Amino acid sequence: MAAFREGINIELALQVKTIIIDKEPSEISAISVVFPDTAIQLCSFHVSRVLNDKTSKEPEAKPTIYQLRGTIENTEFQNLVKELEVKSSPTFFPYFEENWINCPQGWGNRDKMKSITFGNTTTNRVENHSSKIKMVLNCHSTLSEVIEKLLEIVKNKDEDVLYRDVIENLKDTARNFGVGTPSLASNTNPVLKQILQDLTKFSAKLQIWEHDSAPDEEEMAYYDSTESECCCLLFWSFELPCRHIYQKRRQAGL
Predict the structure, then answer these.
(1) 48 Cβ partners below 8 Å, 6+ apart?
(2) pTM of the shown model
(3) ∠ CA 115-3-147, rounded to 5°
(4) Cβ-contact 176, 183 below 8 angstroms
(5) Residue ranges of the alpha helices (H) in the chain?
(6) Which residue, among 32, 34, 33, 28, has the nearest Cα to 8 in the 3D structure?
(7) Residue pLDDT, tens place only, 21-67
(8) What is the DSSP string of 19-56?
């Protein structure tokens, strides 16, 4: 792990905000030593798989566990823990308390707040990439074969990205000629045009969706956002304005 940190450059390593892993104690310990200021989140897919397996014989406890994962408020979290203790079997709650309630790594929304992920909550993308490497390389591959195959993988990925960009540009051109739904570039709203200018297409689409969404009063009260900060999933995952911030700004006449 220390060699990895040095290999990617110390300055770059210091900019790592979040690391997502499976619930492996040895990995957690190593990461905590080498990246002491980096938030550690547990892979959402792995957490779901483990908890689904562990709660297969705990039908009354399962809904409460889903609520524990979803809540962002500490008071609500603690109340749900008390509720879970009542609903759980005598053997399940001690297990859950030791392995999950007292787990400092982010497995629920409460502990994932202020930990940027850009929407990546699982290790699936990395594992998928690793599986592609294993398809062309093995322990018997020579150094020259390793370099050649890795370069092929990178080239194929670049070509795939280029292909998708070309297809998207063709769709935008068609929309500009009145075929299909209007393209993002045709938007006349000055706020949205600025968003399109400043952000990537993915981020711009996300922002336009949030800008055009109108949360109700109950939702606004729950997240209690300001004109610049919010505690919702989108804001702390992407560090971009969310629908609640946009609504606050509209209410303030901004």
Answers:
(1) none
(2) 0.74
(3) 105
(4) yes
(5) 2-7, 10-13, 25-34, 44-54, 62-70, 74-87, 92-96, 109-112, 124-136, 143-176, 190-198, 201-212, 217-223, 233-238, 243-251
(6) 34
(7) 888 888 888 888 888 888 899 999 999 999 999 988 888 999 999 99
(8) EEE-S-HHHHHHHHHHSTTSEEEE-HHHHHHHHHHHTT
**Beta-carbon neighbour count of residue 94 at 10 Å?**
12
Q: Which amino acid is at 12?
A: L
| 249 burial type by CB count under 10 A (0-12 exposed, 13-18 middle, 19+ buried) | middle
* Interhelix angle 143-176/124-136, nearest 10 degrees: 130
Closest CA to 79 of 90, 88, 67: 67
Q: What is the pLDDT of residues 68-124, one digit of tens each?
A: 998 888 899 999 999 999 999 989 999 999 889 888 788 888 888 778 888 888 988
Question: Which DSSP symbol is given to 18?
Answer: E
Query: Please, how many CA atoms are within 13 Å of residue 170, restricted to the half-sphere of its CB?
Result: 6
Given a cut of 90, whether residue 224 has pLDDT beyond it is no
Reference 108, options 144, 81, 146; nearest CA is: 81
The separation between the first and the last C-alpha atoms of the chain, rounded to the nearest angstrom, is 47
